[in-house]
Structure formats: C-alpha cells, structure tokens
Amino acid sequence: MKYYRSHVLVCVDPDCLSRGAHDIEDALQDELVAQGLIDEVQVLETSRIGACSDGPELMVYPEGVHYVGLSVDDIPYLVEEHFLKGRVVQKFLYTKPKFVDEELSAPTPKEVRVVLRNCGKIDPQNIEDYIAEDGYQALAKVLTEMTPEQVIEEIKRSGLRGRGGAGFPTGRKWELTRAAKGEPKYIICNADEGDPGAFMNRRVLEGDPHSVIEGMIIAAYAIGASQGYIYCRAEYPLAVSTLNIAIQQARNFGLLGKNILGTDFSFDLEVRQGAGAFVCGEETALIASIEGRRGEPRPRPPFPAQSGLWGKPTNINNVETYANVPQIILKGADWFASMGTEKSKGTKTFALAGDLNHTGLIEVPFGITLREIVYDVGGGIRDGKAFKAIQTGGPMGGCLPASYLDLPVDYESLTAAGSIMGSGGMIVMDEDTCMVDIARFFMEFTQDESCGKCTPCRIGTRRILEILTRICEGKGQDGDIETLEYLCEQIRTNSLCGLGQGAPNPVASTLKHFREEYEAHIYEKRCPAKVCRALIRYEILPEACTGCTVCARNCPVGAISGERRQTHVIDPDICIRCGICMQVCNFNAVVIQ
Amino acid sequence: MSPENNNHKQEKILAAVEAALERYGARREELIPILSDINRTLGYLPPEALNEVSKRLKEPHSQVMSVASFYQMLSTKPRGKHVVQFCESAPCHVVGGREVWEALQEHLHLEAGETSPDGQWTLVTVSCLGLCSVGPVIVVDEDVYGNVTPERVPEILARYR
Known about the structure:
The complex is a heterodimer of chains A (593) and B (161).
Chain A: E1 6-11, H1 14-18, H2 21-34, E2 41-46, E3 58-61, E4 65-67, H3 75-84, H4 127-132, H5 137-145, H6 148-158, H7 170-179, E5 186-191, H8 200-207, H9 209-223, E6 227-232, H10 237-252, E7 268-273, H11 283-290, E8 314-318, H12 319-331, H13 333-337, E9 347-354, E10 360-365, H14 370-377, E11 387-392, E12 398-401, H15 411-416, E13 425-430, H16 435-449, H17 455-472, H18 480-494, H19 498-502, H20 505-513, H21 515-523, E14 538-540, H22 550-554, E15 560-561, E16 569-570, H23 580-584, E17 590-592
Parallel strand pairs in A: 1-2, 5-6, 5-8, 6-7, 9-13
Antiparallel strand pairs in A: 1-3, 3-4, 9-10, 11-12, 11-13, 14-17, 15-16
Chain B: H1 3-24, H2 31-42, H3 47-57, H4 61-68, E1 82-87, H5 90-108, E2 121-126, E3 138-140, E4 143-145, H6 153-158
Parallel strand pairs in B: 1-2
Antiparallel strand pairs in B: 1-3, 3-4
Helix pairs in contact in B: 1-2, 1-3, 3-4
C-alpha cells in the first residue's frame, strides 16, 4: 500500500453530489497535481461525513478537520493553505451548531458502535481500508481454523438474533439450513429496508459494505452454500453501486469466487434489485421477487430454511445481522454476549426521528431504556415540549406512552408492551401529536402497500382506514372503537404474512394506550391535540386583537369580519381551518379551540 | 401517426428489448431486471415491449403483465420526459412535506400519477428513500434534492425545462 501523509475524504452522498461534490473532487485532484502534492495527499470518496446540509463536505485525515461550504474557486487557496503551509482554513471549518442533525456525530456515552463502527471512517469503495480495520480477518480465521459446526456454535453462543425485526436466533437458523436436505443451498441478505424513516441498513451498505459481504461469506461457509444474493431496494441506488464495487474488489482479492483464500471453499455473490414494493421485505415475497415473479408472500411453513429460493434450502438474514458476524468471530461470542439483556444480546441500530433535539442514527446496547434513548441519546424533546409517545418498529409497530419510558429495549419487552422491535425505526412524538391522526397515517401506508393476496389484509386495512378517516373528520359513531378492535384482532390472526399480521398494531396500540383520545373524537367531537381540522375551531381573542385587519386580508375564503381597530371575528361556517390567520397574526390573538 | 413514425417507434421498442435481453440473458428469473431496464430506456413499458419479452422468454403474457403491474417503479402507462418523485413517508411528512407536495402539484398542474399533456412531466409519489435527515426529499429523474421548501420548487423544476 502506498503511503500518503494526508487523506481527503469527499462526501458523495446524493445531497453533496447535488451541490457539486464531483466538481470539488476534480478540482482537488487538479490542484494537488498543480502544487506538486499529488504523491503526498490522497483524495477519496466517502459517505455521510456530516449532515450534508452544507455540502460539499470534506474530511481531512489524520487531523480530522471537517470542511464545508466549499466551491471550486476556493480549492487552490485551500490546497495551498492546508496541504502546503499546514494551516487549517478557519473560513471553511465546520463548526458544530448547538443542535446538529449529524448522522455520524461522536457516540454519546450510552452508545456502543459495533455495526456502525467503520461508517464514515473508511472509504467504502476501497477494500484495503476495510482490511486495515481488521476486515476479512474473521473470514480467514473461519476458513483456516474452524469447522462449519464450530462457526454455528459460536454464533449460537453469542446469542445473536435476527435484526430484521422478528428476532429469530441466527445460529439456530443457520443450523436448520445446514441440516436441511437439498442442494444447492442459498444465502440471501435482505437489504429491502422499506420502513419509512429507517435508514440504518442503507448507511451500513453505503459506508461499510464489506462487513456485510464478509458476514455473508462466513454464513455461506457455515451452512454450505455456494451462491448468495443481496436483495437491495431500488430506492437505494448508491447502496447498489457501492455493493457492486465492493463485490468486484472482493473477487479481485480472492475473497469471493472459486477457492476463497486458497481453500476449497467457493462462494459468489450477486446484487438483485427490487422495483419498488414494500412487501418484498417479507422473506417469502423477497424470494418470489428474486425469482422474477410478483413479490407476494406465501404461507409458511415450509420456511425458507427448508424450501426457499427455487425450492432449495435458503438462509435469509438482514444487513445488520450479517454485519455483526465478523465481529463475533473475531472478538468471540463471550464479548458479544456481555452486551445486552438475558435474551437480547449485543447492540441495535435505530433511526431516531420526530420531535427530538438530536435525530439520526444511533447504536445502543439492548436493555437500554426508552427514557435513556429519548433524553440521553436523543437530547430530549424539541422546544421544551412534553413527551407524548414513542413509535417503535416501523409501520407494523406500536405507539407507547410516557408510562412505558422505563421499559428496557429488547425483543420480548417491546412485544409484551404491544409494540415490536421491528427493523429499528423510532419516531418520538410530542404533546402536539394526535394519536388518532398518527394511526390513520400508518394505516394509509399499510393499506397502500398491502399486496392484495389475502383478504383480511387487503379489505381489513381498508375498512380500518375508512373508520379512522371518518373519526378524524368528526363523523365518528358509537361502536367505532369496538369495530376497530374486532377488525384489528381478525387481521392480526388471519393474515398471511408479517405485513398483515402487524398492520393493525398502530391502531391496536393507540386504542390501548390512548383510548381517551379516540373517545374525545367520537363522543365529544373534539381533537385534544388540536390537529384534526374538522374538529378544531379558530377563534380570535378579543383582549389580544388590535383590529389590524391582517387576518381578514389574508383569509382565502373571507371568513373574518371586523372594522379597523375593532375586534375581528371568524365565522366558523365559512372557515376552512387553513390556519393562515394564526400564522399572520402579530399579536398571537388567533387561537385554536 | 404516420407509418414511418410508427415504424420508428417500433424499432426503438424492439431495440430496447433487445438491449435488455442482451444485458441480462433471456431467462425467466431475470424478468424484473429486464423490465426495469426497458422501463429506464423507454420511460415506460409499452404493450409491444411486453409482447416481445413474453415471446422471447417463452413466458405467458399474463405472467409478464403480472410482474409489470405489481412493482411501483415499473409503469405500463407512458411517462413524461422528466419524472418527479415525491417522498410521501412520515419523516418527510412531519417536516413540511405536505406543503412541498402542494407546491409541486400547483407548479406542474398535475395530480399524483398524472403526466402532462405535452409529455414533459410525470408526477408520482415514492416510498421512503431513506434520506430522512434531509427531508422533505424529491427526486427529479435521477437527481435527489433534500431540504426542499415550497419556495425552492420552481427553481428546481426550472433546471429541467
């Protein structure tokens, strides 16, 4: 490997690219040549240096200097100052704002980075960077020192469970696939991360693809597979191209293909792209999609371990599951099992979103409480508002109220509380959120994404959505809550796959924990959070109104009347509840009743 | 349409099918990549293309159609020269997505899934792109735009006019 005294990492995420990251990169190369520094300074591409909100962004190592807001014209000056004279250019130095939406901020004290350890630190397009971080050492150890049975035993002992959401013990799954009759056997990586707001897997694929590839090769050795597929959603074009580059480099290094590392073990990998269907994250639907068919789930059993891709034994794990494997082999099952709770070992990545001070990706050990995630890692609720609910597990998950904040985060606890672990989306909601509206929003999603194969899911989700929409429009009726509960139970027990079985969760959990809000909508025709437009009324406070006429002049439907310097009045029959009057009033005289 | 024009269109479709089959091989399991490729080249999947794929893969037309109609990114209807995708997922919704969506509809005079009469624009919604930390997000053709505001919409669209 050639020695460089300095490395410049250019962020090439879509946001930085759209602001000209490639032009910056070209200008850097040209300028380094012009100033005779090209043999000393290496320019690399990476992903997610910062929040990409002031791109293009650069990171200079070994100093760890982070530059933002550069244009091509600034490059000659930057190169001269930083690389020739050794002076940090303050003008472009990234200074940390008070609250940063930074995906790769230094971990907070409660965080532990295992899966995300390399993201943003190494060049994902250069296999040597990964190798320098102990990459492919676990594979070498497995192929030269361990039998497949020993590998499975080590993974079983570590307690690793499927990170796609269901939490099936990974070692046990490998054992079942290894023992299943039928040749050849296949390995699949489920990279169809479709939950809205969840982008942990995308970050791993874009930032550290080799950790997933290495995990897959080890799994293939353990179960005796010779061909693997990474099924990646088409919405992640950068992940697909990064993976393809990584696979090609692994082949060139003899880590994929025939006789890996000179042993008689052979295995190869291929990336398959989806074409936009949420349900393809379900394993049987995913298999159908790889086979070139409609991505519709089928009943299980038989499970893919017995009859999967083309009817052959197939092991499917999620991106994060595979990314954990090399670390477990390298550091040992005991190290991994020392993190987490009795039944949930290791760490979990989450995408924190919603009304928090710090949103973005986090990685925490299992057993951490929701309170620690919200307040210590997430920095608490934005604008000093009160916490109302946390939604875990994506669109098939549930909403938990403040009384559950001390719940430890692990598979069993979340399920017992009426939510799920899911793949790792977490949306925190403050007091201004209407839970009926939230339930309706999630139902819209599942109803839209239902593949239509089985009736409970196809028709049931539609009926629930209709009732919820009616309630939000102020047309709720006595008996709606009971009908919703009945529908939830029927859909949950009778649907074919996880999508349908989980679809009622947002409704069932809000009915359980926020029932009084449904009752207020239905019986009192009132939205306590003041969100549902049909159930709110804008009024002008006479004591605050100065009669400036701004509201009346801006009202699009002429619902506001009043003389200059006199108190104005909103006619609720004409008002369309657009809220413009409230936005334009300079005296906070418009309120929602 | 004049006969020459029609012939030209036919040739273009067959060439797109040929290129896709060449690239992925005329095998059943490659159906989704093949259709995606044709969709990318032609902007959508015309009936002639589906017929040709069905013939070449020796696969019933109904099977090809069932796949073409299932996936969101495959379109059996003609699409505009530029496709504007709007992320409709919750994280984008809570940071002002609705206002951006309304601005897009207003500037393009289109509803979800519609194509403009002059064939320039198609407006569609898309599920989560995983760029939640820079929402609201829109994608025009293959270019991603984050932190979009209603005010930025005309400026972004102008780049493609």
